[in-house]
Specification:
By secondary structure, the chain is α/β, with parallel strands linked by helices. The chain is built from 11 helices and 16 strands. The protein has one domain: Vaccinia Virus protein VP39 (Rossmann fold), CATH 3.40.50.150.
Length: 360
């Protein structure tokens, strides 16, 4: 299997180089309005935003920032196929401008525009990020009523264009079956609160912390891509940044397009892409080991569950008939075609029973 990946240095508000209805899934995290680290970025988009920030008009600055993001969402809607999904990771902002402290609810503003575009709003995910800092509490400490609830979560909004995606041909249905996930992954991934992300999937973050890069962890797009697309689909990130969505698309055998205004993005992503084959085996092996560990615990539990089904490609028991069709593909080579364009060769992962014994 071959997949193709393109990095475009450009503006998320103008995706004219991408044909309409050519993308199956959007996974992205935009600059967060009213988060101070993004003030300069938004101010460069509009003199009115810069003026609103300088005069301390927080609500106006917030609205003007979102009007710029609206243009990006309009473009993402245009390139998305009917039945396609858009996943937007965004955090609200807490900020004091002048004497006034308040929350700027970006997730609600994005949902409002999504509805106006005609996107269907599906149940979203609360991504809860552990925070143990004693200084996380805001306001007047123990004195009512001037203390504030801590804001230590972000949102992953799930939006759909048109109705449920249709798989009509025999080939499409077969690819869908091969792209299935394990029973226990379904139970974990489709919970509406995520309080952790897989540690093993951080191997390709190459030392980039969220604080330094504003990038989400690799486990987040890996999970979303597996949840909402199938092998060979095209995944778009219009704010690709350090390329985390691109890396996740390669690891999951999807095609991808990444767009970013920063010319430095392309060279950083190039370094990350070249490292992929070295760690792909580890990521797949860990996924299988996690599955076998779950099966072993299930069999040893008081329920004494008898596994009725076997995935004969992965040589492991599974809970349901739908899981018997799962196939895993690993990237084995990366070829750079042109600047910002890559072709990745994937091969079917097949293991002997002895090579995937449960972790005890």
């Amino acid at each position: 299997m071959e997949t193709n990946h393109r990095i475009i240095i450009g503006d998320a508000r103008d995706l004219s180089s991408i044909p309409s209805q050519s993308v199956d899934l959007v996974v992205t995290s935009p600059p967060y309005p009213m988060i101070q680290m993004w003030d300069e970025t938004f101010a460069s988009m509009s003199a009115d935003i810069k003026s609103a920030l300088e005069t301390g008009d927080g609500p106006l600055a917030f609205e003007l920032m979102h009007r710029e993001l609206d243009r990006a969402w309009d473009e993402a809607y245009r390139v998305l196929k009917s039945g396609g999904i858009m996943c937007v990771n965004v955090g609200d902002a807490t900020r004091k401008i002048g004497e006034d402290f308040q929350v700027y609810p970006s997730h609600a503003r994005i949902l409002s525009h999504a509805i106006s575009m005609g996107l269907q709003v599906l149940p979203w995910i609360i991504w809860k990020k552990p925070t143990n800092s004693p200084s996380k509490f805001m306001g007047s400490g123990m004195l009512p009523p001037g203390a504030y609830v801590t804001l230590e979560h972000e949102y992953i909004l799930i939006l759909r264009k048109g109705g449920l995606r249709k798989f009509r041909t025999a080939t499409e249905k077969q690819v869908r079956r091969e792209s299935a996930y394990f029973w226990e992954e379904r139970n974990q991934w489709f919970a509406d609160v995520w309080s952790d992300l897989p540690g093993a999937s951080q191997a390709l973050d190459l030392g980039m912390s969220r604080k330094r890069s504003a990038a989400f962890p690799l486990g987040l797009p890996l999970r979303l891509i597996r949840m909402y697309s199938v092998y060979g689909d095209t995944v778009l990130d219009p704010f690709v940044g350090t390329g985390t969505t691109t890396i996740a698309a390669i690891l999951t055998a999807r095609n991808s397009i990444g767009v970013d205004a920063d010319p430095k993005s392309a060279s950083f992503i190039d370094t990350r892409i070249k490292a992929i084959p070295e760690i792909a085996e580890e990521i797949i092996s860990q996924r299988i080991a996690d599955h076998l560990s779950y099966i072993e615990k299930r069999e040893q539990s008081s329920e004494k569950t008898q596994m009725k089904y076997v995935n004969r490609t992965l040589h492991c028991p599974v809970m349901t008939r739908q899981e018997t069709g799962i196939r895993l593909y690993r990237p084995v080579s990366v070829k750079k075609l042109n600047e910002g364009e890559y072709m990745v060769q994937h091969e079917l992962y097949s293991s002997s029973p002895s090579s995937i014994e449960p972790v005890r």
